[in-house]
C-alpha cells in the first residue's frame, strides 16, 4: 500500500476536519505573508520612493532674514554631501485647514510649482484637467487621509485670513507629505505663488535648503550640525530655522505601518498556534481511533516509520497546499493593506512579488506543522502490534471516577456533563488554550481601537501632547502672565498654564523642550522615572535623549538656546512618540537662565461646560489684540489621529472576524468529532431514555466550564498584559510605559460576547445528536 | 387472566436501501402479556431484532399501531419515545454497551436517576440489584473495561432493571459470552422473570430459548409459529428441549 494513498485516504475520511484545518492555515499564511512582506519591504519601499522622487535627504527651512549667502557653500563642504539646492518658499508657521474629520493646524511650506528644481520636483500622481486659475497642488495624503478629491475647494486660514484654492493635483513626497511630521508641503502655480508672497508679511518669506548625501543614514547628524551652525551664524534675532531629515521622516511615517504589520504577524502566530493545537488533537484522536488499523499495518510488516510518514504526510499535504493558497490570497488582499500604507505614508504602495518572503511563510507554517505532527504521533513507535490489535486497551486511562453519581451533588445532567468534560481532558485543554488566545487577541485589538478611535487621551498622551482644549499664542510684546490671569477669570475656564515648546540643544542634540512652572497641573505626566523639574537648575529629559547623551537622573547636562548655555541637573526621565522622542522639560526659571527676558508665549486653556469654538470666539473678542492665534487642540487631535483610526479599525475588524471564525470552526470541529466518537455512547443513552435536548444540554454544559475558564483567563491576561505588550510593540518609537485605558465593562462585554457565541455554536452543532437514533446504534 | 402489555395491529416495517424496498415486518398482530418470558426466534434476516426494537419504542414502525401499556407508540415523537422508554422499558444488548467512562455503579445510576430523583433510595436499590446478579462490592467502582464479558452483561441487566420496567427487552444477550457466563446471565433473566418481570428476548440459541415460556417464530417478517412452553423448570429441561426442537423442526429451523 502506498503511503501517499494512506494519507489521501485519511484526508478523505475526515473531510470536514481537514477543511477546517485548511482554512486556519490559509488565514495564518495569509496574515503571516502580508505582515512579513510589509515589515521587510516598508523601509526599502520608503528608500526607493526617496530615490524615485529624488527627494532631499535633509531639508533645512528658515525665514529669508535668517538665511546667509554662505550657508549653501558651508553645507556643500560638509563631508558626505553630494548635492545642495536652495529655493525660496513661503513658510507659514501655523496654517489651519480642514484635514480628515477636523481642522488641522500645521506649519506649511509653499513652493512655486513652476520653479526649476532638481531635488523633490513636482510629480503629480493625479492632475485635474482642465486646470483652473486658483489651483493648488497638495500631497497625496490629502486624498488618502484628508478626504479631498480633485477639484475640491481648499481653504488655508492664516492669521484670521482665508486663502481659497481648488485642488488641482496630488503629488507624492517623502519629506513633508503627511500631517505627523508637523510640516506639510504645498505647491502653487507661479502666478498664485507670487500673489500670495505679496499678500503675506515678510516673516513668511522663507528659504529652503535641500541636501543630498552619500549615505542617508547620516542625515540626522548632518541636519543637527547644520541647524546648530546656522543658528549660531545668523544675525537675525527672530530667527526661524527648522530641519527635517529622511531617517526621522521614515521612522515617523513607517511607525504605525510597522505596528499594524507586527500585529498581523502576531495574530498569524496565534492562528498557527491554534492550528497546531488542532493538529495535535486530531493526530491523538486518529491514533486512538485507528489503533486497530495501526495494529494490522504493524502486523503485516509496516515499520513505525512508514506509519508515522503516512500520518505526517496528510498534514504536510494540508499545510503546504493551504500555505500556498494563503499566500496567493494575500496578494489579492494586499491592495487593501497597500491602501492603509498609502493613507499612513502618503505614498502610493506598489505591490511586488517577494518570492523569498513567500517561501519563508510557507516554510514556517509547514515546518511547525511537521514538528507538531511528529511529536504528537511519535508514540506510534512504542505501540506493540498486539496491543494495537486489541484496540489499544493500554492507551485507556481510567485513573479516577470523577464526580461519582452516588455521592456527587447536583443535577444528573450537570454531573454527566462534568464527567464528560473530565473524561476528555486533552480535548478541553486544547479548547481552553484556544479560548484564552482568542479572548486575549480580541481584547488587545478592541483596547487598541478604543484608545485610538474612541477615547484618545492615552494615545495622545503617548505623543507627549498636553490634553488641554485651547492653545493660545501670545504676541511677543504682550504680558503673558497678565493674560493668563484674565483668562483664568473667564467663565467655564477650569485652568490655564503657560506651556511653551522651544527648540534647544542638549549636549549637542536637538531637543524639543517644554517650559512651564506648573508641571504638577499638567494632565499628561510624561515622566515615568524621577520627577519633572521644580527648580531653575533642574531638567527632565526623555529616555531617547538620555541614551543619546548617555546621561540619566542625577547627571548634569548642558542646554544651549541661541547663543546662551547653562548646566542643569537631570531629575526625571520621560517618554514621548512626538518629536521622535527627543523631548525635555525646563521650568520658567530654568529657561530664564538662558534668556533673561523669557516670559512664555503660549497658554494652554482647559475648559469645562463650553464649546471650544465659543470660547475661541469669546477670547478673541476680549483679547484679540494681544493674541497671535488660537488653536482648537481637540479638533487638531481629531484631524491628526484620523488616519491611525482607519488603520487600527481595519486591524480590529480583522482580528474580531477571525476570532469569530476560529471559535465557530473549532467548536464545530471538536463537537462534531466528539459526537462521532461518542456515537455509541449517545445511542445507548438514547436507548435508556435520554432525550435529544437532554443530551444537547449535556454537551453544552460539558463545554461551559472550559469556555468560561478560557474566557476569564483570556480576559485577565488582556486586562493585565495588553499595556505591557503594546509597550513592547511601541518601544522602538520611544514608549517605555503605556497606560492605555482598559475599561472593565468593555472587557466584560467582549468576554460575554465570545462566551455567548461559543455557547450558541455548541448548541447548534450539538443538534447533530438528533440524527443519532438508538436504533441506528443497534443497526450499526 | 394475565393482562396484555403490548398489542400490535398490522405492524409493518419497511427499509429502503438504494431505492429498493425491503419489507422486514409484514402486518403483524401480536399480543404480549405480563409476566411472560417471550422468546422471539427465527433465522438470520427474519426480522427478530427489528420486531423487538419496533415494539419497544426504539424504532418507529412504517405502518400499523403498537399499543404499549395503553399508549400508541406510533403517535409519539422521538423525545416522547425517549421518555416512554425510560419509564417503561429496560434494554439488554448483545454488545452490552455500558458507558465506558463511568463506573459500574454510575452506569446503573445514570439510568435510574432519569426516573427516580431519590438518590439514596436509588443507590440502595442499585446495590441490591448488583448483589442479586452476583456483582459484589469490589466491582461497583470498576470501569466496564475492567470487567469480564459476563460481569458486564449482568451490570447491563441491572441497568435495564433499575427503573422497574414493564418489560425487559433483550437482544441476544448471551451472543457474545462464553457458555459459563451465558448460564449465569440466563439465570439472572430466569430469576427476574420468576419475580414477575415480563421479558422479551431475541435469540437463535436453543438453550437460551428454553428459558422462555412462550416462543414466537418469525419467518420473512411474519409470525409463523407460537409455542406455549410453560414456565421454565430445570427438572423438565429435557422434555422442554424435545418440545422446542420439534416446534423448530416444524418451522423449518
Question: How would you describe what is shown here?
Answer:
The complex is a heterodimer of chains A (780) and B (253). Chain A has 780 residues and is of the alpha+beta class. Among the domains of chain A are: 195 residues, no CATH class; 176 residues, no CATH class. Chain A is built from 23 helices and 21 strands. A 6-stranded mixed sheet of chain A has the order 8-3-2-9-1-10, with helices on both faces. In chain A, strands 13-14-19-16-18-17 form a 6-stranded mixed barrel. In chain A, strands 4, 5, 6 and 7 form a 4-stranded mixed sheet that branches. In chain A, helix 2 runs antiparallel to helix 7, helix 7 runs antiparallel to helix 9 and helix 7 packs antiparallel against helix 13. The longest helix of chain A is centred in the C-terminal third of the chain and has 45 residues. About 1% of the residues of chain A have low confidence. Chain B is of the alpha/beta class and 253 residues long. Chain B has a single domain, classed as P-loop containing nucleotide triphosphate hydrolases (Rossmann fold, 3-Layer(aba) Sandwich), CATH 3.40.50.300. Helix content of chain B is 36%, strand content 26%. In chain B, strand 8, helix 6 and strand 9 form a beta-alpha-beta unit. In chain B, helix 3 crosses helix 4, helix 3 runs parallel beside helix 5 and helix 5 runs parallel beside helix 6. Chain B is globular and about 45 Å long. The two termini of chain B are 32 Å apart. Classes of the chains: A alpha+beta (780), B alpha/beta (253).
Amino acid at each position: 500500500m502506498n503511503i501517499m494513498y494512506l494519507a489521501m485516504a485519511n484526508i478523505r475520511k475526515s473531510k470536514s476536519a481537514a477543511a477546517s484545518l485548511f482554512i486556519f492555515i490559509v488565514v495564518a499564511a495569509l496574515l503571516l505573508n502580508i505582515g512579513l512582506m510589509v515589515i521587510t519591504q516598508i523601509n526599502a519601499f520608503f528608500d526607493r520612493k526617496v530615490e524615485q522622487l529624488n527627494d532631499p535627504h535633509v531639508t533645512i527651512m528658515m525665514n529669508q532674514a535668517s538665511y546667509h549667502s554662505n550657508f549653501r557653500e558651508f553645507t556643500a563642504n560638509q563631508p558626505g554631501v553630494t548635492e545642495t539646492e536652495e529655493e525660496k518658499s513661503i513658510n507659514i508657521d501655523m496654517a489651519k485647514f480642514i484635514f480628515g474629520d477636523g481642522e488641522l493646524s500645521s506649519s506649511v511650506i509653499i513652493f512655486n510649482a513652476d520653479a526649476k528644481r532638481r531635488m523633490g520636483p513636482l510629480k503629480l500622481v493625479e492632475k485635474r484637467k482642465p486646470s483652473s486659475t486658483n489651483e493648488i497642488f497638495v500631497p497625496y495624503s490629502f486624498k488618502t487621509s484628508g478626504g479631498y478629491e480633485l477639484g475640491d475647494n481648499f481653504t488655508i486660514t492664516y492669521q484670521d485670513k482665508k486663502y481659497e484654492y481648488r485642488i488641482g493635483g496630488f503629488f507624492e513626497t517623502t519629506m513633508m507629505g503627511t500631517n505627523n511630521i508637523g510640516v506639510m508641503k504645498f505647491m502653487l502655480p507661479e502666478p498664485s505663488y507670487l500673489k500670495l508672497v505679496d499678500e503675506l508679511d515678510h516673516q513668511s518669506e522663507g528659504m529652503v535648503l535641500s541636501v543630498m548625501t552619500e549615505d542617508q543614514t547620516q542625515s540626522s547628524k548632518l541636519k543637527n550640525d547644520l541647524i546648530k551652525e546656522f543658528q549660531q551664524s545668523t544675525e537675525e534675532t527672530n530667527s526661524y530655522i527648522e530641519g527635517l531629515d529622511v531617517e526621522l521622516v521614515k521612522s515617523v511615517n513607517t511607525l504605525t505601518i510597522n505596528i499594524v504589520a507586527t500585529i498581523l504577524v502576531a495574530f498569524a502566530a496565534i492562528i498557527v498556534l491554534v492550528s497546531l493545537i488542532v493538529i495535535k488533537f486530531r493526530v491523538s484522536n486518529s491514533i486512538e481511533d485507528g489503533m486497530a488499523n495501526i495494529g494490522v499495518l504493524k502486523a503485516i510488516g509496516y515499520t513505525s516509520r512508514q506509519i508515522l510518514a503516512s500520518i505526517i504526510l496528510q498534514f504536510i499535504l494540508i499545510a503546504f497546499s493551504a500555505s500556498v493558497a494563503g499566500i496567493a490570497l494575500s496578494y489579492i488582499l494586499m491592495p487593501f493593506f497597500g491602501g492603509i500604507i498609502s493613507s499612513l505614508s502618503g505614498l502610493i504602495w506598489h505591490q511586488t512579488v517577494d518570492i523569498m518572503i513567500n517561501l519563508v511563510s510557507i516554510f514556517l507554517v509547514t515546518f511547525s506543522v511537521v514538528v507538531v505532527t511528529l511529536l504528537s504521533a511519535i508514540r506510534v513507535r512504542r505501540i506493540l502490534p498486539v496491543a494495537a490489535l486489541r484496540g489499544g486497551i493500554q492507551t485507556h486511562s481510567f485513573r479516577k471516577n470523577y464526580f461519582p453519581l452516588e455521592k456527587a451533588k447536583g443535577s444528573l445532567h450537570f454531573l454527566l456533563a462534568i464527567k464528560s468534560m473530565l473524561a476528555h481532558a486533552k480535548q478541553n485543554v486544547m479548547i481552553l488554550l484556544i479560548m484564552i488566545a482568542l479572548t486575549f487577541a480580541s481584547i488587545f485589538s478592541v483596547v487598541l481601537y478604543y484608545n485610538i478611535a474612541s477615547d484618545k487621551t492615552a494615545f495622545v498622551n503617548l505623543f507627549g501632547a498636553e490634553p488641554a482644549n485651547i492653545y493660545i499664542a501670545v504676541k511677543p510684546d504682550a504680558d503673558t502672565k497678565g493674560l493668563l490671569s484674565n483668562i483664568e477669570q473667564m467663565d467655564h475656564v477650569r485652568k490655564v498654564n503657560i506651556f511653551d515648546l522651544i527648540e534647544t540643544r542638549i549636549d549637542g542634540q536637538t531637543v524639543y523642550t517644554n517650559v512651564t512652572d506648573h508641571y504638577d497641573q499638567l494632565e499628561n505626566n510624561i515622566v515615568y522615572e524621577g520627577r519633572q523639574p521644580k527648580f531653575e537648575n533642574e531638567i527632565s529629559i526623555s529616555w531617547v535623549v538620555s541614551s543619546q547623551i548617555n546621561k540619566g537622573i542625577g547627571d548634569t547636562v548642558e542646554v544651549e538656546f541661541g547663543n546662551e548655555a547653562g548646566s542643569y541637573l537631570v531629575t526625571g526621565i520621560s517618554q514621548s512618540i512626538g518629536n521622535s522622542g527627543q523631548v525635555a522639560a525646563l521650568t520658567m526659571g530654568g529657561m530664564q537662565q538662558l534668556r533673561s527676558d523669557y516670559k512664555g508665549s503660549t497658554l494652554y486653556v482647559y475648559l469645562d461646560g463650553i464649546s471650544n469654538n465659543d470660547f475661541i470666539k469669546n477670547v478673541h473678542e476680549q483679547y484679540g489684540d494681544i493674541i497671535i492665534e488660537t488653536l482648537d487642540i481637540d479638533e487638531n487631535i481629531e484631524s491628526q489621529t484620523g488616519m491611525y483610526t482607519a488603520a487600527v479599525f481595519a486591524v480590529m475588524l480583522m482580528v474580531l472576524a477571525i476570532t469569530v471564525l476560529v471559535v465557530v470552526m473549532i467548536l464545530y470541529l471538536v463537537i462534531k468529532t466528539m459526537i462521532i466518537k461518542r456515537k455509541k455512547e449517545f445511542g445507548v443513552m438514547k436507548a435508556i431514555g435520554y432525550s435529544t435536548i437532554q443530551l444537547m444540554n449535556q454537551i453544552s454544559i460539558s463545554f461551559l466550564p472550559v469556555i468560561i475558564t478560557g474566557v476569564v483567563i483570556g480576559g485577565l491576561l488582556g486586562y493585565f498584559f495588553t499595556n505591557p505588550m503594546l509597550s513592547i510593540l511601541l518601544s522602538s518609537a520611544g514608549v517605555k510605559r503605556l497606560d492605555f485605558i482598559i475599561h472593565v465593562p468593555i472587557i466584560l462585554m467582549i468576554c460575554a460576547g465570545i462566551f455567548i457565541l461559543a455557547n450558541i455554536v455548541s448548541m447548534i452543532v450539538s443538534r447533530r445528536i438528533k440524527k443519532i437514533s438508538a436504533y441506528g446504534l443497534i443497526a450499526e | 387472566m394475565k393482562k396484555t402489555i403490548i398489542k400490535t395491529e398490522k405492524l409493518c416495517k419497511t427499509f429502503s436501501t438504494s431505492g429498493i424496498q425491503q419489507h422486514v415486518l409484514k402486518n403483524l398482530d401480536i399480543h404480549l402479556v405480563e409476566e411472560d418470558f417471550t422468546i422471539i426466534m427465527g433465522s438470520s434476516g427474519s426480522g427478530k431484532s427489528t420486531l423487538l426494537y419496533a415494539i419497544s419504542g426504539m424504532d418507529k414502525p412504517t405502518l400499523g399501531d403498537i399499543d404499549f401499556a395503553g399508549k400508541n407508540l406510533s403517535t409519539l415523537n422521538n423525545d416522547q419515545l425517549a421518555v416512554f422508554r425510560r419509564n417503561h422499558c429496560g434494554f439488554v444488548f448483545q454488545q452490552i454497551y455500558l458507558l465506558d467512562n463511568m463506573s459500574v455503579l454510575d452506569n446503573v445510576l445514570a439510568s435510574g436517576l432519569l426516573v427516580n430523583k431519590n438518590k439514596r433510595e436509588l443507590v440502595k436499590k442499585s446495590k441490591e440489584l448488583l448483589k442479586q446478579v452476583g456483582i459484589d462490592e469490589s466491582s461497583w467502582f470498576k470501569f466496564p473495561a475492567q470487567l469480564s464479558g459476563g460481569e458486564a452483561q449482568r451490570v447491563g441487566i441491572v441497568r435495564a432493571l433499575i427503573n422497574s420496567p414493564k418489560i425487559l427487552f433483550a437482544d441476544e444477550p448471551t451472543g457474545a459470552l462464553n457458555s459459563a457466563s451465558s448460564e449465569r446471565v440466563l439465570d439472572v433473566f430466569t430469576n427476574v422473570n420468576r419475580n414477575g418481570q415480563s421479558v422479551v428476548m431475541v435469540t437463535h440459541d436453543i438453550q437460551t430459548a428454553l428459558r422462555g415460556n412462550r416462543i414466537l417464530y418469525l419467518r420473512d417478517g411474519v409470525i409463523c409459529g407460537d409455542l406455549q412452553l410453560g414456565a421454565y423448570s430445570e427438572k423438565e429441561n429435557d422434555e422442554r428441549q424435545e418440545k422446542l426442537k420439534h416446534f423448530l423442526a416444524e418451522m423449518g429451523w
